[in-house]
Amino acid sequence: MSEPTPTGKSTGGPTALRMILGGYLRRLRESKNITREDAGYAIRSSESKISRMELGRVGFKVRDVEDLLEMYGITDEDELSRLLALVKEANQPGWWHRYGDALPNWFSAYLDLEGAASMIRTYEVQLIPGLLQTREYARALLMLGFGHTPLQEIDDRVNVRLSRQNILTKKDNPPMLWTVIDEAALHRPFGGREVMRQQIQALIKACEMPNVRIQIVRFSSGAHSGAGAPFTWLRFGSEDLKDVIYIEHLTSGLYLDRDDEVDAYQAAMEHMCVQAAQPAQTPGILREILKDQY
Length: 294
Prior knowledge:
Helix content is 47%, strand content 12%. By secondary structure, it is an alpha/beta fold.
């Protein structure tokens, strides 16, 4: 029996869809005991091209996929039509395409995966997570990091950040956002006292959302397992997509999906959730900081 044809529903964008299609092609190839080298030869290319296709790291040419499906013995016309339609969909630009000049190439893949996630777990040390930032807070951050950038580009970056937040309120299956914020981030007045006051008020309101869970690691917790750097753990509703750990650097983004890597970050996240104040305590902590500092 062949693998069920992926549907592509609620995948979030072309990167996630390419990963699903790539995984499907890999399983078909392996079920036929065909090597990547032989598959590469069938599409007039190389073993490394097949590897990149199966990992979803390159776009798919319709002719290449047609040749591979023929090699793998897929002959049902309906199945072929669905797959080739998905190939064309995976080659379409994502919603952020109109902001392309303002975004680094490596970040578009993250936007895709974030949009496809069923659960987003993130840890932040110095900043409020992007999915919970107010417009004024986001602008203050971007002006700080990219002060030499034209204002129109700053506006585009802010608009992308605010547009990302739409996934939390979408009608169909919005993701669960579970974030752990180091208390230090709440005491860094990016944009000044008024901007931070509005930002903390926005966090208090976000605590009321059924799909948002916020925990704060108090200073009194001392050292903890997340002290190194912020990271995001993405989990997906599709079994075709493995969990991904995303770590952002100044000029690049790192995507980890090996089981041992994901397990290490998962353990760190779970440990932080134990050390942090429980979600029910978060509004009170935020009101306390609001009263004392802003």
